[in-house]
Amino acid sequence: MTLTTRKLGTQGLTVSTIGLGCMGMSQSYGPADEAESIATLHRAIELGCTFLDTAEVYGPYTNEELLGRALGAKRSQVVIATKFGFQIKDGKITGTDSSPARIRDAVHESLRRLRTDHIDLLYQHRVDPRVPIEDVARTVADLVRDGKVRYFGLSEAGVANIRKAHAVHPVTAVQSEYSLWERNLEHDVIPALGELGIGLVPFSPLGRGFLTGAVKRAEDYPADDFRRNDPRYQGANYDANVAAARIVRDVAAAKHAKPGQVALAWLLHKGPSIVPIPGTKRRTYLEENVAAATLVLSPGDMQALDEALASDKISGPRYNATMMSMVDR
Fold first, then answer.
1. What confidence tens digit (pLDDT) does each residue in 52-107 have?
2. In the chain, what are the domain boundaries?
3. CATH of domain 5-209+259-295
4. Strand runs (DSSP E) across the chain, as ranges?
């Protein structure tokens, strides 16, 4: 199959119905496998999964470099999204920095690593409390006028900052964690995005793997795996979340599908401007994810999933306290 496309909001950016999160090719989920990662990127293009998500901080830097090497002459076939906004020193995040000068430097370096002359969608990775969001939007607007950036996005931004930024330069998409087991956007962010004509790009749409059913307790993952420190994979939280996620496996079994495909289909049924970006570095999982675009869920399926995985049914915070402090809500 070849994926269809969707428009991210009303600003004119058309992308594949499901995107590909590339972070795990370089960090967080076990050792890297460059040959398989490049093969996965090439297979994604063959399948029409051409919305590729990266960031300067992934690696750091190595994920953008990987895409630059992998794409070559295929660059015109994809939509590249990348992000700026963190201070990086000796390979570690030391804070946020969205000062105008830093944004310009970050874009210059991302273009070099990606081996391209423009970024299709440029996100502020996290809101910087020291820099007015209006200054960020004006700086990105300058980059758009210079032809270095096509569209502007925000990641994990709250409603107030989304509105302020959008008033200066149109925000095309907001990328935030949203899935069957992380519903934090439903109260205020999603209604605001609909009002403003902004698309939603959910990252971790499979609950960092939890919704696929192929999960283990935190302590059973390698030391370099992000999930080892995920509160929802630990202790009693793990037990409660396995029980809550059983509905996903039940719906999948009834439809002869994979649990992860049900989780992705649920997102696609939530609205026409929602484009999830499941991450993988393997062709097998990529092909499973892409196939989710054809899975039909009935209103009854959607209601059962909504109720079984409501926010009060999920145990544990989505991040530890340090990471949550960088989420603008």
1. 999 999 999 999 999 999 999 999 999 999 999 999 999 999 999 999 999 999 99
2. 5-209+259-295
3. 3.20.20.100
4. 5-7, 14-16, 20-21, 51-53, 79-84, 86-89, 92-96, 119-124, 149-155, 171-177, 199-203
